[in-house]
């Protein structure tokens, strides 16, 4: 009885509330909790993800085709299928132009209707029925105006942002894999492998990247795939140095010696033990590498070495703003989107770096967060 009473007293806190059992937190969960303490970086992540999701759903709210059409008792879905003008009472079998006043009048007849997206323009839409000159300033019809070809600036910004982020994600993923692989092999095996790898990297990094881009752009037709391949050839070098340094430090730890004593192969030790403990610089640099990729694509497009027309691009819009200084809305809106994107990624990178550094995380926690 005394032991049972003592156990009940030990299981009860001084204020009468039962003690809760201690639950261990995984390292990934602990990093996420630290990341959430940095409010600026956390909200930057939310804004960036929401903006990217909105850009992926761009055709649903920025398109020159209706979402759904009801005409003479039948339903049509122009986003899914291309319909000829004859389907709506026209004379020509060509694809229907839903900006044509004739087609719109057919939809406004009794019993018919068309549900348009909020913005009635796609990134390459040319409104042949507009009576104004181009570039046109912001208006109710074109929220951020038009460029020198009559294309809607708002639509090109939405789709240009999507292209930039997708390009940055692909380029960052490829560069990260190559950088981790090269750095891991050099850092873990060391010796002649490390020296040979460093000399080869020094020779490779000495190649003029911009000149190679100019040469290949003049030989092949510019495309996103070509840019990804060319930039991936050099984008991994900086990261490999950090991974190499982490592997050189961690390969001498006791857990690596224990893994060798257990008979694990070198690749098993690299993958299971050394790599998870060397990922801090890799994860920390991801947002900054994405910023660099977006800036690279924007710069190449500005110079005319990037994606081909009419692919939407932030760099192409900046070039148009430079060529049309009186059309201030082109440069101002594009510069605002570019700066906001880079700032969001920078805030996310700072918060992620602080979350992975236990010393900074403890200081932030003591100070009540940012």
Highlighted features:
transport, 3-stranded antiparallel beta sheet, transmembrane, elongated, 3% strand, 370 residues, mainly alpha, ABBC transport system, membrane protein, 3 strands, disordered N terminus
CATH architecture of the largest domain: Orthogonal Bundle
Task: Report the structural category.
Answer: mainly alpha
The gyration radius over C-alpha positions equals 28 Å
Query: What is the helix content?
Result: 55-70%
Describe the largest sheet.
3 strands, antiparallel
What would you note in describing this structure?
Pfam families: BPD_transp_1 (PF00528), OppC_N (PF12911). Its main location: membrane. The chain folds into 2 domains: 64-116, no CATH class; 154-367, MetI-like fold (Orthogonal Bundle). The protein is 61% helix and 3% strand. The protein contains 16 helices and 3 strands. Strands 2-1-3 form a 3-stranded antiparallel sheet, with helices on one face. Strand 1 (68-71) and strand 2 form a beta hairpin. Helix 6 runs parallel beside helix 15 (328-356). The protein starts with a helix and ends with a helix. Residues 3-14 have low confidence and may be disordered.
